[in-house]
């Protein structure tokens, strides 16, 4: 079946503490390290700590890829950006990058302290956006939550993944990458 080429546009949750956001530069602190495996490769994209969707829209560029992972929203929520601006930026990013045959939009993890709107509300908006655009929605942080908050040992700061959490999120994203379905999930 070949190697799946993956483009990613994200923030610190995608890059982790990796020395570089490249196929060779990812380390175990990035969920992508686990998600990609032997049959998928990071074909390009951008992941910058602290980045909002608006910031990443200006950094996005065309990437020859089979799948685009959009992993943004945590900083948008933290900075209080209106969701319609986030949604517009995510649509623009998908258009700029390709669009590839598949777009996967990831849920954001919990934030502590919780802001308004809450992350469950924000994730519902992200899910609705994915459905409206014909993208797949993946609740990648589900294995690291306990209710609406972080499960014990999954975040040291209420925002970022621990190494164990990055592996669990990566496993969930990896399963989504390996599903051969072109519609929203």
Automatic annotation (TrEMBL):
Its EC number is 3.1.-.-. Residues 8-167 form the SGNH hydrolase-type esterase domain. It comes from the Bacteria. Keywords: Hydrolase. GO terms for molecular function: hydrolase activity. InterPro entries: SGNH_hydro, SGNH_hydro_sf. This is SGNH/GDSL hydrolase family protein. It comes from Demequina litoralis.
